[in-house]
């Protein structure tokens, strides 16, 4: 971190769900947060909650991520924390997943984190900031025993490995890189997944919801705020000697 009055954080996919919760949590802890999303109106709605900034960002476009990182860095004297959170999912059987769906999932969930990480790291290195990059992975990035999400699993395993590679290469610049691995998080994305999985299993959505709860030793669905607090820890001085880790935040649904 630097000695400026407010440290600067950028959060991707901040228009809703986990991203919105992360942005709000970091703002509550004294960061000036720039909420980014492909839906600029949603990003602005998030930023309005705490008086932060909002920018359009398509994480699959290297020019878009570079522009956001450079402009935020120029306006605020650097970037202290970058949270690559934007992600997508679509539940379907492995044999029915189309090449187009596979490419789209990898483009957003893995390539997006790669491109944004590059953009953020370049700004941090140029400004001489001992920054922090945090990537949203998933417990599906630690186990393949996840039904109907083969392309998603592949992308999130990639995020966990990429996080380690980034951490190793950026350590000489005192930039830490970690990921968080949420479980069954109650978000709009989860609502869609409930419907998809229920249809694929031929059962009501409430049956699937209960299956997820039963699979979680702490006995409830995870909230976006649960994830946000873990991200805030990784962004704090308390975590400065942690890098290359994939922090499980899933209520015990998967333990490693």
Overview of this structure, please?
- With 256 residues, the protein is an alpha/beta fold.
- It contains 8 helices and 7 strands.
- The protein has helices at residues 17-28, 40-48, 62-76, 99-127, 150-170, 188-201, 205-214, 224-234, and strands spanning 8-11, 32-37, 53-56, 81-84, 132-136, 176-182, 246-249.
- The protein has a 7-stranded parallel sheet, sandwiched between helices.
- The chain starts with 7 loop residues before the first strand and ends in a 7-residue tail after the last strand.
Write a compact overview of the structure shown.
By secondary structure, this protein is of the alpha/beta class. It has eight helices and seven strands; from the N terminus they run E-H-E-H-E-H-E-H-E-H-E-H-H-H-E.
Q: How much helicity do the residues have?
A: 40-55%
Order of helices and strands: EHEHEHEHEHEHHHE
Query: What is the overall shape?
Result: globular
Q: Walk across the major sheet and give the strand order.
A: 3-2-1-4-5-6-7
Give the low-confidence spans: none
How far is the first residue's CA from the last residue's CA?
30 Å
Number of strands: 7
Our estimate of the beta-strand percent is: 5-15%
Estimated radius of gyration: 17 Å
Oligomer: single chain
How is the topology of this model organized?
Layout: E1 8-11, H1 17-28, E2 32-37, H2 40-48, E3 53-56, H3 62-76, E4 81-84, H4 99-127, E5 132-136, H5 150-170, E6 176-182, H6 188-201, H7 205-214, H8 224-234, E7 246-249
Parallel strand pairs: 1-2, 1-4, 2-3, 4-5, 5-6, 6-7
Helix pairs in contact: 1-8, 3-4, 4-5, 6-7
């Amino acid at each position: 971190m630097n000695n400026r009055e407010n440290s600067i954080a950028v959060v991707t996919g901040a228009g809703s769900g986990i991203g919105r919760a992360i942005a709000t949590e970091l703002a509550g802890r004294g960061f000036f947060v720039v909420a980014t999303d492909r839906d600029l109106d949603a990003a602005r709605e998030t930023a309005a909650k705490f008086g932060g900034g909002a920018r359009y960002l398509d994480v699959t476009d290297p020019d878009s991520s570079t522009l956001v990182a450079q402009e935020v860095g120029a306006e605020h004297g650097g970037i202290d924390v970058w949270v690559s959170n934007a992600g997508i999912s679509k539940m379907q059987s492995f044999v029915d997943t189309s090449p187009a769906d596979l490419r789209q999932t990898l483009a957003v969930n893995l390539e997006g984190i790669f491109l944004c990480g590059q953009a953020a790291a370049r700004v941090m290195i140029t400004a001489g900031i001992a920054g922090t990059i945090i990537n949203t992975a998933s417990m599906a990035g630690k186990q393949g025993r996840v039904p109907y999400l083969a392309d998603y699993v592949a992308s999130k395993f990639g995020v966990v490995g990429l996080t380690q590679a980034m951490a190793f290469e950026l350590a000489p610049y005192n930039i830490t890189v970690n990921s968080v691995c949420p479980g069954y998080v109650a978000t709009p994305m989860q609502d869609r997944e409930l419907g998809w999985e229920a249809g694929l299993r031929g059962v009501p959505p409430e049956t699937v919801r209960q299956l997820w709860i039963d699979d979680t030793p702490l006995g409830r669905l995870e909230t976006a705020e649960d994830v946000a607090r873990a991200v805030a820890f990784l962004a704090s001085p308390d975590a400065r000697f942690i890098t290359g880790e994939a922090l499980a935040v899933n209520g015990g649904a998967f333990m490693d």
